[in-house]
Amino acid sequence: MTQPELHPGSGASGEAAHFRALENLYRSAPINRLFRSDLTIREPGRSVIDFDVDESQFHAAGAVHGTVYFKMLDDAAFYAANSLVSDRFLLTTAFNLLFTRPIAPGRIRAEGRWISGKRRVYVAEASLIDSDGEEVGRGTGTFMRSQFPLSSLPGYGA
């Protein structure tokens, strides 16, 4: 893994600096202003996103809309994979979803895990866990290196 640039004042170096920079990138994405969520990366190939859902994210039948499942599963899997790549932003090329239970209002956790790949294409999976510890959704994605250097993205390491 190429070592990331150190960011002044971050207090972190190497791998830890990369993880903190990815967490900042997540927070800086405009789409995340729509979600009360927080990304944590503590080790390579794993990520956790804790988020809240409420009635504002429901479809007409009174349960959380599938876009929330996709967004959080994709993000958790993506950041698990991108935690292994410190020079380029990854792009989702495919994602498969399994909805196992409806999500009720409350705190949900998306847990991402890298599965395979270390060059051009990465495979990662994620699970959604509700406040009772039950899995409510699962997804697997493929991600590939983009032309965008992470260091060129405004939120990376800010």
Description:
This protein is α+β, with helices and mostly antiparallel strands. The protein has a single domain (14-152), classed as Hotdog Thioesterase (Thiol Ester Dehydrase, Chain A). Helices cover 20% and strands 37% of the residues. The chain is built from two helices and six strands. Strands 1-2-4-5-6-3 form a six-stranded antiparallel sheet. Strand 4 (106-116) and strand 5 (121-129) form a beta hairpin. The protein is globular, with a radius of gyration of 15 Å. The two termini are 21 Å apart. Mean pLDDT is 91; it is low at 1-10. Residues 62-135 form the Thioesterase domain. This is Thioesterase domain-containing protein. Pfam families: 4HBT.
What does this entry show, briefly?
The protein has 158 residues and is an alpha+beta fold. It is 20% helix and 37% strand. The model is unreliable at 1-10 (pLDDT under 50).
Question: What are the SSEs and their pairings?
Answer:
Blueprint: H1 14-28, E1 37-40, E2 46-53, H2 66-82, E3 88-99, E4 106-116, E5 121-129, E6 135-149
Antiparallel strand pairs: 1-2, 2-4, 3-6, 4-5, 5-6
Protein name: Thioesterase domain-containing protein
Organism: Sphingomonas bisphenolicum
InterPro entries: HotDog_dom_sf (IPR029069), Thioestr_dom (IPR006683)
Mean model confidence by pLDDT: 91
The strand line-up of the biggest sheet is 1-2-4-5-6-3
Helical content, roughly? 10-25%
Structural class, from secondary structure content? Answer: alpha+beta
Rg, please? 15 Å
Largest sheet: 6 strands, antiparallel
What is the count of structural domains? Answer: 1
Beginning-to-end CA distance, first to last residue: 21 Å
Instruction: Report the order of strands and helices.
Output: HEEHEEEE
How many strand units?
Answer: 6
The named CATH superfamily: Hotdog Thioesterase
Low-confidence stretches: 1-10
Assess the beta-strand content as a share of residues.
35-45%
CATH topology: Thiol Ester Dehydrase, Chain A
Which CATH architecture is right? Answer: Roll
